[in-house]
Amino acid sequence: MDARLAYELAELNANMSDVERLVTLHWGLSSVLRANVAGDVVEVGCNAGYTSVWLATTMRALAPERELVLFDSFAGMPPPGELDTHLPEGECLASAEQVEQNFRSRDLPMPRVVAGWFDETLAELPQRICFGYLDGDHYRSIQLSLEQVWPRLEPGGLLVIDDYCDLSRNERAWDGLPGVKKACDEFFAGTDHVVEVVPGTSDLTLGYVYKPTSDGGPR
Questions:
Q1: Does domain 3-210 have CATH number 3.40.50.300?
Q2: Where do the domains of the chain lie?
Q3: Which of 13, 35, 149, 150 fits as disulfide partner to 17, beta carbons 3.0 to 4.6 Å?
Q4: CA 38 – CA 66 distance, rounded (Å)
């Protein structure tokens, strides 16, 4: 793990990330790559690509042959629903050119970048996924992400979901986007899958869920 890069990216992306979040992503991605879980890596909601750079750095060290695929509208947030109380339409605007610049400036291979609204683009997901970072912010965005990514996630694969806030398990977590938890809880309702909560010393708000292996392995 490149600690200096973690601090650099956290400072550059202070409104959307922090060192604890980056360490969690490294832990999650490196764990499935070291376990040789098949498939590629996806980030659904990449913004300007700072966390994408972090994922790519981990992949370069452990599995450079895997593909990293990034999705974003590059038009900011879609119109909010009734549960989306924090980010208005057009917020979090970034560009594919910013993603490219962030990769080129660090001499990283360019990922595949898919621009557009998730309901139009997620059909372009890899057929096999080992790790997914879902950062769609709004209820419908996370709902769409789960509907499309989970069936492609390989057994033993891992999803990390940004803004999943369960104050009963992490009272420090930021609760500004309640639609994320609702979308996840509805999606996994009636199953044995549990979205676990990542603790932190800050207001870190992350959930994660493994897809069980055929022998009932990690979940």
A1: no
A2: 3-210
A3: 13
A4: 9
Q: Are 159 and 193 in contact (CB under 8 A)?
A: no
Q: Which two tokens stand for residue 163?
A: 């803004």
Alpha helix segments (H runs only) across the chain: 3-12, 19-34, 50-62, 96-104, 118-121, 139-149, 178-188
Q: Which residues contact 198 (CB under 8 A, 6 or more apart)?
A: 20, 24, 170, 204, 206, 207, 208
Residue 104: phi and psi, rounded to 5, are: -65, -35
Smallest Cα–Cα separation from 30: which of 66, 4, 5?
Answer: 66
Q: Decide if 87 contacts 177 (C-beta within 8 A).
A: yes
What is the chain's mean pLDDT, rounded? 89
Express each pLDDT in 178-189 by its tens digit: 999 999 999 999
Quote the pTM value. 0.91
pLDDT at 109: 94
CA distance 110 to 97: 11
Q: What string of H, E and C letters represents the secondary structure of 124-146? A: HCCCCEEEEEECCCCHHHHHHHH
Q: Mind listing the pLDDT tens digit for each residue in 42-95?
A: 999 999 999 999 999 999 999 999 999 999 999 877 677 788 787 766 566 789
Q: In the numeric block, which tokens belong to residue 93?
A: 């605007």
